[in-house]
Amino acid sequence: LEFRRVLFRSLMGLFYLFKNNFSNTKSKISIFYADWCGYCKKFLQNDLHKLQKYSKENNIDLEMISEDNTITQEYDIEGYPTIIINKNNQQEMLEGYHTYEEIISFL
After folding, report:
1. Pairing of strands 90-95, 82-87
2. Nearest CA to 29 among 7, 105, 67?
3. C-alpha to C-alpha distance for 37 and 27, rounded to whole angstroms
4. How far apart are CA 43 and CA 41, in angstroms?
5. Of 22, 24, 72, 93, which is most buried, counting CB atoms within 10 Å of its CB?
């Protein structure tokens, strides 16, 4: 039963992603964060500005999703920060703190 629940949440998350204008040619970075999270604060201070600049220069959508957003529940996000990178219909989930350099290595 638990596997079905997780699978359903995953499928609903994919539906959300495609419903919200994901195209085959454009990459998207979704960053799930919590205000109380020390690693999230570190990322916001050290890496977010560089990632915003990189995404703008390379036509990559970048979105920040707070812990109280319903999509967080649909993805069954359990830890923060969690970063989901969508590129060429492939999805990569990075859990925990990752630097700007580590994130763009997946693009």
Report:
1. antiparallel
2. 105
3. 26
4. 5
5. 72
Could you tell me which of 19, 46, 61 has the C-alpha nearest to residue 100? 46
Instruction: Note the Cα 13 to chain centre separation in Å.
Output: 11
What does the pLDDT look like over 13-62, one tens digit per residue? 444 444 444 444 578 999 999 989 999 999 999 999 999 999 999 999 99
Assign 3-state DSSP to the chain and report helix, strand, coil percentages, each to 5: 45, 20, 35
Alpha helices, H only, the chain: 2-19, 38-46, 48-57, 70-74, 100-104
For residue 99, the one-letter residue type is T
Residue 40, amino acid: C
Copy the structure tokens of residue 87. Answer: 């590129």
Rounded to an integer, what distance in angstroms lies between the CA atom of residue 46 and that of residue 13?
A: 29
Contact in structure between 21 and 63 (CB atoms under 8 Å): no
Among 28, 32, 60, CA closest to 44: 32
